[in-house]
């Protein structure tokens, strides 16, 4: 059993007869009244996101997890196939287990969290950023750069990202997987 002081991003807990992963949290100490922790929880089984507030010192039932490296192989409808980089065993996961499936490129190495009790996969953690090639975007018009102007671009995985006007088709860009946002042009 853990308490609210142990809450951190990525912690898996049992809550409302399901297993949730904490995606955001904020410790709040108001001037009046007791402290509390405001959290955003994502169900690892359904992908449903809910917000919950725990009072300070509240006991939470944490789930012991183990992380393993897997390589993303290919998609098949809403099912994604991965291969263990150590023993080459393959597993299939549903789209709900992934935070940003549209940023996942074939061959990418990800971290998968497993419940140590029943060895079931809980969620997939992508790297902090990925480098993808822009496959389609409108050309930027010179003189159209008043303040941080952006335009939509489609990358090789099919995801649509807002990029600065100077990005062209064929450019490789670095994308933040947590926010799904453009970071910078990739260095060749």
Set down the secondary structure blueprint.
Layout: E1 2-3, E2 12-15, E3 18-28, E4 36-43, E5 49-55, E6 59-62, E7 65-76, E8 79-84, E9 90-94, E10 109-115, E11 121-125, E12 129-137, E13 150-155, E14 160-164, E15 172-176, E16 181-185
Antiparallel strand pairs: 1-6, 2-3, 2-6, 3-4, 4-5, 7-8, 7-10, 8-9, 10-11, 12-13, 12-15, 13-14, 15-16
Walkthrough of the structure:
With 188 residues, the chain is mainly beta. It has 3 domains: 2-62, SH3 type barrels, CATH 2.30.30.30; 65-125, Nucleic acid-binding proteins (OB fold (Dihydrolipoamide Acetyltransferase, E2P), Beta Barrel); 129-185, OB fold (Dihydrolipoamide Acetyltransferase, E2P). The protein has no helices and 16 strands. It has strands spanning 2-3, 12-15, 18-28, 36-43, 49-55, 59-62, 65-76, 79-84, 90-94, 109-115, 121-125, 129-137, 150-155, 160-164, 172-176, 181-185. A 6-stranded antiparallel sheet has the order 1-6-2-3-4-5, with no helix packed on it. Strands 9-8-7-10-11 form a 5-stranded antiparallel sheet, with no helix packed on it. Strands 14-13-12-15-16 form a 5-stranded antiparallel sheet, with no helix packed on it. The relative contact order is 0.13.
Descriptive key words:
SH3 type barrels; 188 residues; OB fold (Dihydrolipoamide Acetyltransferase, E2P); mainly beta; flat; 0% helix
């Amino acid at each position: 059993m853990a308490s609210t002081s142990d809450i951190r991003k990525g912690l898996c807990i049992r809550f409302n007869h399901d297993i949730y992963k904490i995606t955001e949290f904020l410790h709040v100490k108001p001037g009046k009244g007791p402290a509390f922790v405001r959290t955003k929880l994502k169900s690892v089984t359904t992908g449903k996101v809910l917000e919950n507030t725990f009072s300070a010192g509240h006991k939470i039932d944490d789930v012991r997890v183990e992380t393993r490296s897997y390589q993303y192989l290919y998609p098949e409808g809403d099912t994604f196939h991965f291969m263990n980089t150590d023993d080459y065993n393959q597993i299939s996961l549903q789209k709900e287990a992934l935070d940003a499936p549209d940023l996942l490129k074939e061959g990418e190495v990800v971290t998968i969290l497993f419940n140590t009790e029943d060895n079931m996969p809980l969620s997939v953690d992508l790297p902090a950023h990925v480098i993808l090639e822009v496959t389609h975007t409108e050309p930027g018009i010179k003189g159209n750069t008043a303040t941080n102007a952006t335009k939509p671009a489609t990358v090789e995985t099919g995801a649509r990202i807002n990029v600065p006007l100077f990005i062209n088709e064929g450019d490789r860009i670095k994308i933040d997987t947590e926010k799904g946002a453009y970071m910078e042009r990739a260095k060749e």
